[in-house]
Please model this.
Amino acid sequence: MTSSTSSPFAFRSNEKIDQGFIRILDLLAIETQRPRKTLPAAIHETRVLIKRFRALLWFAKPALPPLGLAQAKSRLQEASHLLTASRDLAVMRFTLKKLSEKTPNSGDRKILAAISKNLGQQQALDKKSGQSLQRTIAILLQTIREIKQQAKASSKWPSPSKRLIKAFHAMKKVEKKALCNKKAVQFHEWRKKTKRLLYQLELTQLVSSKRIVRTIKRVDKLQKKLGDYHDNVVAQDCLRKNPPDKTSRFAVKLSVKLLEKRNRHLRKKVQKMAKRIHLK
Model:
């Protein structure tokens, strides 16, 4: 069926689809419960696992009952929202810190660094993050158990190649819209569809070749750049609506302006990267 890949979240050669799906579900459950060194790391890794789970559910859509699939998606959305506040705070701090390292003006660097430091102090005071994480993990594990039971009862499993092609075309469709209107919401959708394509490539890798490995690397780089763009947009919105304590209006305005300049650069970058991605 598929060739072996370096990703543990991939079907194995000579493995039936249903068996591989259940094995990967079990791996998701194990990874969800694995201890992390820090709370921010745990939140980040849990969010990644939620995205992997969503991509796995999308692949198995033809095999799963519509009601069960809808319930699983709703629960994963709830789980993801529980971590949104902590995630946005971490994104703001990391984005501003990274931007300060790339800003040539020393005065601007100091302002960005000061805001990042203030955000770090706020993050340390967020006592609800740990509780939200535990609730998220509980929802994730429960959903995995329920989907596993539904998968065992199914006999209508999809073709890996057809699902991969569908994911590719869905990504290209949203890509076209994003590059035409340049709206942040469309770039966000493009990022999500590109991430899903990446996970489908890893899951359903049909041949072990330099070409497919190159495609995976290019899709991964594209989704990371689109992720940087989304992080910038999140940071901009958060700074406008809820600026950190001890931050002047001038500092907020400057930061938003620098983030927008970075966004223009990223839009040009991802447009060039997208042209290099093909399945054949």
About this structure: The chain has ten helices and no strands. Residues 10-157 form one domain. The CA atoms of residues 101 and 109 lie 7 Å apart.
